[in-house]
Write a structure and sequence with these properties.
401 residues, Growth Hormone, Chain: A, two-stranded parallel sheet, 79% helix, globular
């Protein structure tokens, strides 16, 4: 009897603000984790790939760079399609391509093949950013922030844990094994989405170019969406600062640690993501501005702690956890506010939000690297502090809503 009822439920179209089963939200969170991990498995494997392919470090690093370029293009040109075409078909299409490209990575015999596969893996790993608007648009008002929080937790957990998983599997079984395993993971995720992802009606009628033009119109005519995207992006830039030079910091005195230790510190970020999984349900109570401001303050405290106690593992671990909690406060509050402003254009709004988010993350990585060269770890800390402070200043200059 239960099986028949569940099948009928899957055939129904989700309705805006009509609610989503918690089981579906958790499934989307798990799939989001694995899809986000796709882009980052390669990072601890680059040196092994370099040796096997007999290429230089720059050529090997392009595997990561090209995957990031693919992801950025996916944010810009694929996410808006979630408002125009079937999100169910779009999701499964992206997952099928990611599966095939993971297989190509596993059997590729030259670096050019890996570049091509990495590009399409990045391009199609934007699936979690299709899930966030689903939670924002179809959850009930009372559960909207909570459900988005679950999916964000899955996304961040996948990003942070992927480097550790990739490093462990690569060290013991070879780098190709990671991608053979990922083929199986993608197949299971694809089957799960085929079975359980409901149908959602498109929100936009028109050509693809009209769709992209409407993204520009939204960006121009909705200053609050721009503001929310910017202050969340600054928070992401603050968090990305800590990882850009962590390997260099731990390699020197007093740590003299190897790359495996950096990966284990990434698990502290996972702990922060899991610890703040239910934090989104408090946003309606305290408001977007207060929540975003609190996240920026937490990041400021985290950076102050990591600057003062940055030569101890305890200082770094506590700082990373608090930094991650602060980011969750900022992203959940601002991303939810953006989608609430134009729920009928949730995917296009999310394109603006995530593109801004991605740009500030890249800026944080670049500037903190410069800070490391000039002032060492204190330069990295100063960069992270400035990004968090700017996010807080925007909040303080914004009327509460």
């Amino acid at each position: 009897m239960n099986k028949i009822v569940f099948k009928k439920q899957n055939q129904n179209i989700l309705t805006p603000n009509g609610g989503m089963p918690l089981s579906l939200v958790i499934l989307l969170s798990v799939v989001a984790a694995f899809m986000a991990a796709n882009i980052y498995y390669n990072q601890p494997l680059l040196d092994v790939i370099r040796q096997e392919m007999k290429v230089n470090e720059l050529q090997a690093s392009f595997v990561t760079v090209i995957a990031q370029i693919g992801y950025a293009l996916g944010l810009l040109f694929i996410i808006p399609l979630g408002d125009k075409v079937s999100r169910r078909r779009l999701t499964m299409g992206c997952m099928l391509i990611a599966l095939l490209m993971s297989l190509l990575m596993a059997v590729g015999t030259n670096i050019e093949t890996l570049w091509v596969a990495s590009f399409f893996i990045g391009l199609c790993s934007i699936v979690p950013q299709l899930f966030m608007p689903v939670a924002g648009q179809y959850s009930t008002p009372a559960t909207k922030s909570r459900n988005m929080g679950y999916i964000l937790t899955g996304l961040l957990t996948g990003i942070l844990a992927s480097r550790v998983l990739g490093g462990i599997i690569g060290e013991h079984f070879g780098w190709r094994m990671m991608y053979h395993i990922n083929v199986i993971i993608m197949m299971l995720c694809l089957l799960a989405m085929l079975r359980f992802l409901p149908v959602m009606a498109p929100n936009f009628k028109g050509s693809y170019w009209q769709l992209m033009g409407s993204v520009v119109d939204i960006f121009i005519h909705h200053p609050r969406i721009r503001m929310n995207s910017m202050r969340a992006g600054l928070g992401f830039g603050s968090m990305m600062s800590v990882w850009s030079c962590m390997a260099f910091h731990l390699a020197g005195a007093p740590f003299h640690a190897n790359s495996g230790t950096v990966g284990l510190l990434g698990m502290c970020g996972v702990a922060g993501a899991l610890a703040s999984m239910n934090i989104g349900k408090y946003i309606p109570r305290f408001g977007v501005n207060r929540f975003s401001g609190a996240g920026a303050v937490l990041q400021l405290i985290a950076w102050a702690f990591m600057i003062i106690f940055g030569n101890t593992y305890a200082g770094l671990i506590l700082g990373i956890i608090v930094l991650d909690v602060g980011l969750q406060c900022q992203q959940l509050s601002n991303q939810g506010a953006c989608m609430s402003e134009l729920p009928q254009a949730a995917n296009r709004v999310n394109t603006i939000f995530m593109t801004t988010y991605f740009v500030f993350g890249a800026l944080g990585t670049m500037l903190s690297s410069t800070g490391w060269k000039v002032l060492g770890w204190n330069g990295v800390g100063l960069c992270g502090l400035v990004f968090a402070l700017l996010s807080l200043v925007i909040t303080l200059c914004t009327k509460n809503k």
